[in-house]
């Protein structure tokens, strides 16, 4: 699993990324609004959890929309929403059986998808005043991370440079 993660991290432009001794790590963006993405490996069951805490849903009508997105993962790119029992915060999570992963590109795509859906959802559930909402730039979704050879950095489809933190 550690080799698979390191290969996936390299595809995301995180050449020095690695899982810690307990099989976990956190990917953090330098841009406001992009939630940290956590990765946790359960060696006993050979399962990887990729998850991000999205925030608190204050508008109950959004719960209905989120449940529709959750339906067979159609609006979440295969991940699922849930509420953290200890904090009532919305969490987006994807569980992967390591044996079912065909290559590092597939794993990198799963990480990227969780990051993008978590960001898009946080934007939806975070209350904004009209002036701040008008200043927001439209962010395209659904593109894979694109490496930038000149800098060695990697950018998600919305231009978000990602960093790695153990």
Keywords:
six-stranded antiparallel beta sheet; 4 helices; two-stranded antiparallel ribbon; alpha+beta; disordered C terminus; globular; 26% strand; single chain; Yope Regulator, Chain: A; 166 residues
Per-chain topology:
Elements: H1 2-11, E1 24-29, E2 37-42, E3 47-55, H2 60-70, E4 80-83, E5 90-97, H3 104-125, H4 130-135, E6 146-148, E7 153-155, E8 162-165
Antiparallel strand pairs: 1-2, 1-8, 2-3, 3-5, 4-5, 6-7
In short:
Helix content is 30%, strand content 26%. It has helices at residues 2-11, 60-70, 104-125, 130-135, and strands at 24-29, 37-42, 47-55, 80-83, 90-97, 146-148, 153-155, 162-165.
Explain how this protein is built:
This protein has 166 residues and is α+β, with helices and mostly antiparallel strands. It has one domain: Yope Regulator, Chain: A. It is 30% helix and 26% strand. The protein contains 4 helices and 8 strands, in the order αβββαββααβββ. The chain has helices spanning 2-11, 60-70, 104-125, 130-135; strands at residues 24-29, 37-42, 47-55, 80-83, 90-97, 146-148, 153-155, 162-165. A 6-stranded antiparallel β-sheet has the order 4-5-3-2-1-8. A two-stranded antiparallel ribbon has the order 6-7. Helix 1 (2-11) crosses helix 3. The model is unreliable at 137-166 (pLDDT under 50).
């Amino acid at each position: 699993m550690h080799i698979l993660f390191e290969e996936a991290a390299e595809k995301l432009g995180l050449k020095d990324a690695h899982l810690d001794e307990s099989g976990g790590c956190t990917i953090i963006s330098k841009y406001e609004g992009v939630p940290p993405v956590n990765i946790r490996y359960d060696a006993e069951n050979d399962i990887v959890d990729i998850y991000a805490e999205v925030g608190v849903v204050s508008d109950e009508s959004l719960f209905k929309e989120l449940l529709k997105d959750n339906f067979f993962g159609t609006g979440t790119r295969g991940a699922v929403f849930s509420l953290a029992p200890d904090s009532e915060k919305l969490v987006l999570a994807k569980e992967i059986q390591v044996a079912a992963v065909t290559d590092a590109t597939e794993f990198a795509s799963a990480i990227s998808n969780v990051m993008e859906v978590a960001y898009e959802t946080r934007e939806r559930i975070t209350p904004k005043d009209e002036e701040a909402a008008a200043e927001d730039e439209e962010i395209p979704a659904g593109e894979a991370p694109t490496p930038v050879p000149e800098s060695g950095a990697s950018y998600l489809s919305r231009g978000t440079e990602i960093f790695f933190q153990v």
